[in-house]
Amino acid sequence: MNYAIEIKDLTVYYNNTCALSGINLTVAKNDFLAIIGPNGGGKSTLVKSVLGIVKPQNGEIKIFGQRPEKYTVPIGYVPQFSHSIHDFPIMVIDVILTGRLQRGTGLFHRYSKKDYEIAENMLDKLNITHLKDRQISELSGGQFQKVMILRALATEPELLLLDEPTANIDNDSKTQIYEFLKEINRSVTIILITHDTAAISSYVKNVACLNKKLFYHGEIELDNDIIQKTFGCPVDLIAHGVPHRVLKNHGE
Ligand SMILES: Nc1ncnc2c1ncn2[C@@H]1O[C@H](COP(=O)(O)OP(=O)(O)OP(=O)(O)O)[C@@H](O)[C@H]1O
Ligand SMILES: [Mg+2]
Fold it and tell me: By three-state DSSP, how is residue 69 classified?
């Protein structure tokens, strides 16, 4: 089996706070995996561990069979909080082009014709070509998120990690983004952290339920018991967070 990611016995602490405990998770090549779980459940920490931003206390991670430090292909990453660069004085096209820098070219790299072609093609994919020369500070939240996703893809990754990319995005734009991700998924393995369960049922191949431990990993057939265990104490969170009706129910 050709795995995109293999995680064995992963435990992460921040000082005395245990964020992840004994996680074992394998993600197949070309999977589209959603990670769900309550706030503080360790979802971002898991993704940051794969990126090597967070150092685990215990455990092993392999990316396409390689240890993270040996894996040299850029990993496409859209962080949960990228708002801090929203006010930066830089144009949309230039943000996307920075993704090209991760392709092994140095800081003083002059972008090639191919770099521009790739970046412009990307804008076209999400119908935001008209925003090409706009300052990113002038973009709406949804437009900005699209640019962040395109920047991640401009690195031509084999693996794309998205941390709540559709929070605060309207339904039409969400659909556009998910359709785009579905297309990308033909050649790229995708891990998506989301609270958007409607998307999970229609776009994603597998789901992982995370709350410090991994409570479930598999096809999208969650029953209430798993949701209850993952989200700790159930009814409220099911009502406000994960509407279980969008997930298949074993009991029905
Ligand atoms: N840099 C940090 N320093 C200390 N504690 C941290 C740090 N980052 C996260 N934590 C703690 O680790 C736990 C897991 O946090 P994490 O951000 O991974 O959760 P999450 O599932 O992504 O939550 P959310 O849905 O709110 O984004 C939380 O208890 C959090 O307070
Ligand atoms: Mg998070």
Answer: coil
SS3 54: coil
pLDDT by residue (tens digit) across 229-252? 777 644 333 333 444 433 443 333
The amino acid occupying position 39 is N
56 in Cβ contact with 9 (< 8 Å): no
Judged by its nearest atom, the ligand closest to the C-alpha of residue 40 is 1
Q: Going along the chain, which residue ranges are E strands?
A: 3-14, 17-28, 32-36, 58-63, 76-78, 159-163, 189-193, 206-211, 213-219
Nearest to 86 by CA among 151, 155, 40, 179: 151
Give the CATH number of the domain where residue 20 resides: 3.40.50.300
Ligand that lies nearest to the alpha carbon of residue 46, given by its number in the listed order: 1
Q: What's the pLDDT tens digit per position in 101-139?
A: 877 666 667 888 999 999 999 999 888 999 999 999 999
Tell whether 214 is covered by a domain: yes
Ligand 1 pocket list (CB less than 6 A):
14, 17, 19, 37, 39-45, 80
Domain that includes residue 225, residue range? 1-75+160-167+194-252
Residues 6+ apart with CB under 8 A from 25: 5, 6, 7, 10, 208, 214, 217
Radius of gyration of the chain (CA): 18
Number of domains in the chain: 1
Residue 89 lies in a domain: no
Single-letter code of the amino acid located at 33: L
135: exposed, middle or buried (C-beta count within 10 Å: 0-12, 13-18, 19+)? Answer: middle
Q: 76 with 153: CB under 8 angstroms?
A: yes
Centre of ligand 1 to C-alpha 19, Å, is: 7
